[in-house]
Design a protein that fits this description.
The complex is a heterodimer of chains A (about 575) and B (about 100). With about 575 residues, chain A is of the alpha/beta class. Chain A is built from 22 helices and 18 strands. In chain A, about 40% of the residues lie in helices and about 20% in strands. The longest helix of chain A has 22 residues. The chains are: A alpha/beta (about 575), B mainly alpha (about 100).
Amino acid sequence: MVRERYSAVLVSDFNLSNFAAVLINDPESPGISPVEAPFGQVLPVLLDSSLQCWKHSPDLAIVWTQPHGVVKGFGGLLQGESVALDDIMSEVDTYAEALFKMSQKVPMVFVPTWITPNSLVPEGLLEMRSTGAHTVLTQMNLRLSDLQNRTPSIHLLNTEKWLRTAGKYAFNPKLWYMAKVPFGNEVFREAVADIKSAISGIIGNARKLIIVDLDNTVWGGIVGDLGWERITLGGHDPHGEAFADFQKGLKLLNRRGVLLGIVSKNEEEIALEAINRHPEMVLRLDDFAGWRINWKDKAQNLADLVEELNLGMQSVVFLDDSPVERARIRETFPDVLVPELSDDPMLYRSKLMGLRCFNLPAISGEDLRRTKMYQAERQRTGLRDQIGSVDEWLKSLLIEVRVEELNCVNVGRAVQLFNKTNQMNLSTRRLAEKELMDWPQDGNRRLWTLRVSDKFGDSGLTGIMSMEWNGDEGRIVDLVLSCRVMGRKVEETMVHVLLQQARLVGLRTLQAEYLPTAKNTPCLRFLDSMEDACRNGNLFIWDVTKDVPLPECIACTVVEGFPQA
Amino acid sequence: MNTHMDEILEAILKAVDDVNLQLPMNGRIERSKAAKLSGDDGKLDSLGLINLIVAVERSVESHLGWNVVLTGDSTMSQAESVFASVNSLVEHVEKLLKEKEVG
């Protein structure tokens, strides 16, 4: 599913040619190639999958309509007619049902929320009454948003935000009367930026780590000079409030699963004391997954921290008040996103909230526990340093692996893991949620997820494996393991379980074909280390009659018969 | 007078920049007085022309503070020649503004 270019069908009751042009010409990745569905025939287009526009299985659809265009009752309401709310909602339901049906065939569907141009609605108190256009439109949008609970492939987008950004150029009556284009290009540019951000989030490319500097970034002043008692933070001071608000913004993102880290040129003891003791500090030490506070080069510190957290540079955002440090990181690591921070800290929070790189379609339990997991990892590493041999250390961890088939409960996290794991990944397939759920429906295919926990905590759903077979010959299709738990014999456990399952369905051989990418050599190294497998080029073949034992340090449970969606 | 013409030209070229964002790289309008707009040699189709009209009205208003209407009869009746090139458009806008001053 991860592609450089996505095909999109545009469905609308107005002229989307300007929007399509913005989509095509926008230089940001991923590219989108739009096809415009027949103009002004929204319901027939949504319901008729035999139309030419659906023929080539588009990656996504953007269905952008005007409320009075698809809900005739609302059009009547705008003209001052008396229309029952139930009738309007019934039309909304019909439209929603058509969207739902279409969403079964398209992996991603984006639906901008309904909005009416100011010129169609007289301003006044009446519009806010229970039968007023504004109130009814709010209810229509709420009803539409229920669709997202029915299917994970439909995503509503906030049109109102785009209009706010576009300001007085949001609507242009001349464009409407002459070309049936209701919005100015500023609105379309905002829409394209949000849609691309949403695609990135859905395919697992959202940024996962924010690394911040400390002095004049999360507080005002130099703590080493002033002491923690005199830094600018909180209180009745505009800059102090702005810094506290910026920290609140970081905390909000952390609560949505984005990790926080510190890279700062400071004395570690002095900086940590400020974080621990300042009464108005919003972020405390346990909000950070890791830090490098010393006088070394920031690029080196950033690289060390990112490696410790097992992430790639494409996951990182770096926030620093110093233009010199920003330039250094930008030059050294072009994949790191380094936003320009204003000289005025009162603009930091709005800059942070305006970044579109943290866009997740949903928040999983794993996302919420991520910081805690990294803290547990620090404890594990500490223990490893105390204990001599790796085997002893692994035994002391009391690792438990729980294997269960893909189901409607674990699919959300599974699809995230499936689409973002690069290193321990046999075939690096990328699939959207629906495609992943559909794949094992074939009788000769199975797909399992793995949860890994140990005495320091639950690492969550961190592995996926699948196989398909023909006669008595089987093939491992996916072998995916988060780097969070790599090197703890979970890989060997996966092969053990796969062979066990292969025996259960009567297979004689099981093979795995390693498909090389720029990043998955750890997978090849692991396969190469499997003495029981016979290697032929990139093909690894096991004799299913021979057992690959479960590693001694692992307790493994295979849960059978979990209900499918 | 020349100052007026230069200012109008600059406002129209800014509108051209805006419209170019909608056009494919190989179909963009050159940023010059001689650039062809619509007609046989031009780069704009009917929607492109509407986008240009809206962009020029907006640009003249925001950069020069003058309200100019390019959708009136006096423009549309001679649209082919007015929108033939950047130069003809500059001259037409200048003429409309003059008429406004006189009127």
